Amino acid sequence: MAKGKLKVTKESETGENLEFQNIGNNEKLTSNELIKRLETGNSVYNEGYYIKHQDGKKYVVSKPDGKENNNLG
Fold first, then answer.
1. Beta bridge partners of residue 8, listed in sequence order
2. What is the DSSP letter of 57?
3. What is the pLDDT at residue 72?
4. Is the dihedral of CA 39, 45, 47, 51 positive or negative?
5. Cα(20)–Cα(17) distance, rounded to whole angstroms?
6. What pTM was estimated for this model as a whole?
7. How distant, in Å, are the alpha carbons of 2, 5, 9, 70 from that of 62?
8. Which three-class secondary structure state does DSSP give residue 60?
9. DSSP classification of residue 65
10. For residues 6 and 20, is the Cβ–Cβ distance under 8 A?
C-alpha cells in the first residue's frame, strides 16, 4: 500500500488543520473524513499519520520521521 502524503489546504484562525489534499492523487479530505479513515486502521494514510486526542478533541498528526529539525520537540 502506497504512503498517502498530505498537504494542508485550509486552516482555522487558530492554526487547526481543517482540510487536506493528497499530493499524489489530488484527493481532498476534511479533517473529520481523514480521522474516520485513520480510525479504520486500513488506510493509506495510517503509515504517515495518526490521531492525537487533546482536550476532548481529535487532531490529525504526522508521525515523526526521525529528522530533528522537522518535528515538534
1. 20
2. E
3. 46
4. negative
5. 8
6. 0.82
7. 16, 10, 15, 11
8. strand
9. -
10. yes
Residue with cell 504526522: 62
C-alpha cell at 13: 484562525
Structure confidence by residue, pLDDT tens digits, 43-59: 999 999 999 999 999 99
pLDDT tens, residue by residue, 2-30:
567 999 999 999 989 999 999 999 999 99
Question: 25: Cβ–Cβ under 8 A, 6 or more apart, which residues?
Answer: none
Instruction: Tell me the backbone φ, ψ of residue 38, rounded to 5 degrees.
Output: -65, -35
d(CA 57, CA 11): 16
List the domain boundaries for the chain.
Answer: 6-65
3-state secondary structure 4-39: CCEEEEEECCCCCEEEEEECCCCCEEEHHHHHHHHH
